[in-house]
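On clarity, I found the account of how folds are encoded harder to follow than it need be. Since the whole study asks how a given chain folds, the encoding of that fold should be made plain. For the editor and my fellow referees, an illustration may be useful. An entry of this sort, consisting of the sequence and the corresponding backbone structure tokens, reads as follows:

:::
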Amino acid sequence: MRSHYCGQLNETWVDQTVTVCGWVHRRRDHGGVIFLDMRDRDGIAQFVVDPDTADAFANADRSRSEYVLRLTGLVRLRPEGTQNPDMPTGMIEVLAKDVEILNTAATPPFQLDEHGKVGEEVRLKHRYIDLRHPDMIDKLRLRSRISHSVRAFLEKEGFLDIETPVLTRATPEGARDYLVPSRTHPGEFFALPQSPQLFKQLLMVSGLDRYYQIAKCFRDEDLRADRQPEFTQIDIEASFVEEGDIMGITESMIRQLFAEVLDVSLPEFPRMTWHEAMRRFGSDKPDLRIPLELTDVDDLMKDVNFKVFSGPANDDDGRVAALKVPGGASLSRKAIDEYTRFVGIYGAKGLAWIKVNERAKGIDGLQSPIVKFMDTIIEDLLDRLDAKDGDIIFFGADKASVVNEAIGALRVRLGGDLDLYTQNWAPLWVVDFPMFETDGNGRLSPLHHPFTAPACTPDELKADPARALSRAYDMVLNGTELGGGSIRIHDQQMQRTVLDILGIGEEEAQEKFGFLLDALQYGAPPHGGLAFGLDRLVMLMTGASTIREVIAFPKTQSAACLMTDAPGAVTSEQLKDLNIRLRHKAKADNTAE
């Protein structure tokens, strides 16, 4: 129905007849001449309709915002003084010979020109309108280019695109499963996959050697800016590899991706251990663009007459850390109070601080409600932090986990508020993760998943599991975890040891993932992989604030679709087919029906 997209028209097509289809972006009547700005996925072009073409003029006169039109006309240069060099099509216009109304449109719930002022709830309710905006089209176009680049790279590296099941069984991967009742097996349920983890390992046992998939994954968990109940992974697995092999392949893929899509040459990917990342930045996904670091001061605080500091400093599980902000002494008390409330979100009971006004005056040159407790150690403290006039020092003192989370988050907040970024892109590999973490009841749980290989023998693992490291690795970019992976357990004895440590008995293990345990006895090769969050990757590369901006039809933060009103009720007949009966609270007497 068309010869060109609107955005393709330029001086090249002058004096040629073209046909376009699209939406009326704007209609203007200038003294009998009608101007139609026509829009499609490639851009906007200006059409001029004269009264001389009666039928075309009549249809143009009837047209309104978001009407769907087909126009044919002659491309010509715009008159001098009316050209718009800021638009790709701004040097030309099309003199329309024919205007056909393909469809009318009701008044849209919002004008695309006001896209940035419209609330997200309205935009998600009418997502099909929202997606017409050029910014949204550009994000989805870039997402498509990213997927194409990834596929091309992996195919060239010998990886096979293999689909894995969406209807599977619940397995322990760290989040709550979405369950699907089975009609043919009453009382039993499928689970939607949290990831293709077990199936890609089975593909390695099958000898397929190099696998990838752009896979849909599902997790029923609390949402935030970079989480959705259904999301997309770039899933990669390979056999006969070690950590460096997977990290090398995937780093090359990301480097090539940024060069092709954004024309950006990423700097070298440094490597940092998990323990170093937590010590210096309080986070296992540190944003290296921010030149602020946490400094341990536990040893200085052990004997101070201030239990807020001395208590954690003498506790094996405690930590006292300082965060120096150069030039931060100019922060107002109101700003400091706001930061105090902010760290409280992460469990901190308060936020101590010292402003260094005139260091040469000793304590008299410092401003802080806590400095009176530190007369004996203040010079050592300032020396360790290399504090200078005009700096502010913030302190975190609590359980190490609380300090890391609270002061680590404060570091990121300050980086944004004070615009401390030193570069545009800061990639990083975080390696040598702990094998296990301790839950609230003191029990060990896998930091990643129970199929991650430890960096030790089974006997060494059993002797001291809490200190064991894993063969896991995460790729981090600008403080966001782009992807994580590991070398997997391929040995039956090691897998059994890990499950024993986790308190998963043989019967439970067989019930949950016996198919994987069975497969390991039939010649499983050494293997490992990595999964990228495609949505997060696109979010970073487009500069979007949430992954909802780069998913065509996302859910809200309450895991609902405003456009389709999902989730929704189903009929009693459907429930009967599934052998399910719902229990409701009766409104009148609050008893179960």
